[in-house]
Design goal:
heterodimer, A: Immunoglobulin-like, 6-stranded mixed β-sheet, about 30% helix, B: mainly alpha
Amino acid sequence: MRRLRVSKLTGYGAVAVLGLLASVALGAPELAAVSAPFALVAALGLVVAREPAVEASLALSADRVVEGEQVDALVTLRSSGSVERLEVVVDLPDGLVVVDGEAVSSLRLRGGETRELRFTLAARRWGGYSLGELFFRAADPLGLTRWETRLDRRTSLRVYPRPEDVRRLLRPFRTQVFAGNQVSRDKGEGIEFADLRPFVAGDRIRRVNWRASARRGELWVNEFHAERNSDVVLFIDTFAEVGESARTTLDHAVRAAAALADGYLREKDRIGVVAFGGRLSWLLPGSGVVQLHRVLDTILDAEVVVSYAWKDVDVVPRRMLPPRALVIALSPLLDERSVAALLDLRARRFAVAVVEISPFAYVDEGSGEADRLAYRLWRLRRDLLRARFEAAGAPVAVWDEERPLALALEEVREWRRHAARRPV
Amino acid sequence: MAEARRSQAGLAAAALAVALAVGLTAALAARTGAVGPFVAIPGAVGTLMLAISLGFGSAVLLPPALVLLLGEYATFLLIEGGDRFAPVVAAAFLLLAELAYWAAEPRGVGGARAVVPRRVLTLLALVAGAAALAAFLLGAGGLVSAGGPAPVVLGVAAAVGALAVLLWLARAESVR
């Protein structure tokens, strides 16, 4: 523990010494009587002061929670010697708030005594947190000496984003070769009827369509659409964000990504993630429950890192973008680099759908005429940008806090339905 | 640990300390009659320094403030020649100093109320002990006031001894 000098000792020593000397000089015993207690307190304080030996631990009731959920924390304190006044502060990262109990406390700890501090934390924002830095300040009974120390008892807490409500997922136009829940355009083993064809040697009898065969006088069999999986790549734009606290465009993008990943993995599709920004991170496409945790861990690490370096889609590993994959971009479309990368992907014949996380709610129109004009121009430029995407065959759906994500996805689906002639 | 605002207990201690300093200064000045304003000068300056120090939540000016208040009492004794209320003054002076240093402490965190009652009890015990010690010393001083150089030598030895003990303890603490 770091020992701190307290000026009280100086003050008391000065009063004691000057008082006693003045008492002798003036021949006034009253001065000695007034200053002697100061000398006694100072001496007593120094004699009884002992450096505290505090042990502490921190335990959480869960190491993974969903945004908005609560987790109980328990700080256990133990001291070999008595500590008259001990102040404990548990340093909490932004995003975690105490909703019950106190993360700071003052107490007296007897020698050998074990005390427990309990408090409940609420996860206000998704992210990977490390908490458990404990700060201690102790004082001797007479307040002449103080000690401070910091104990590192950090433990990790993963806060997963609150899932958005998604009922129907976007589908790529072409499926992959592995079994899944999506009805493929290709024919094969499945349950969705596709077509009829004449019987050939090797066809199973159970596939014979007896009604069609009776009508045509020869054996005809049913053909079915195969059920395949698809590859979906979630493209999270981390070049820029706007917003405040836990309501930024990146927050919405992460929540949407978590919901989409969960939905696609339930459908046995393969999901990959690219966080494209100042710092590039990615997760190769995969499927299953383990992949869901990998995806969540990857998107929890997503953060906006300011960078002025130009990046294009070539920096993304090739394996990250399998052929026929559907790329769903979650972006506020604020940075030219992410816009260029998405248009580049579309030019490379990837199916791209853009969910534009609307920044309008966070941008003030301004009060002056010039401000309003600039705002209108900015909005017009964004409309133009959307038109560029749509001309390239990439639908853009605007999503903000006011609307459910499902609605934005439905808009994309509608666009693709009506633009079926376009090669998406 | 970050220094924070003072607690309610700290604010109350600051108010009490300043009130005690004002009271002590005024009482000593009132008891000296016509030269009261002259006696009150060091006390008033000390009280002002105390108030400024506590106003800024710092203990830097407290030692000179206490010394100035002690100087007022020394002036009072020089004029009056003695004080039968010295134990009361000793108790009040120690209480003032303790409250002032309490107020200058950084804010106690969390449930500071849990340690306040015990601290108040310690403070009351200290004040009572100070009054008792002062009364004892005055009694002992009366016994040895027979005259001659012996009391002076004893007093100087006590002062130097106290200083030596404090320095030795402080040095031992810094080495530990």
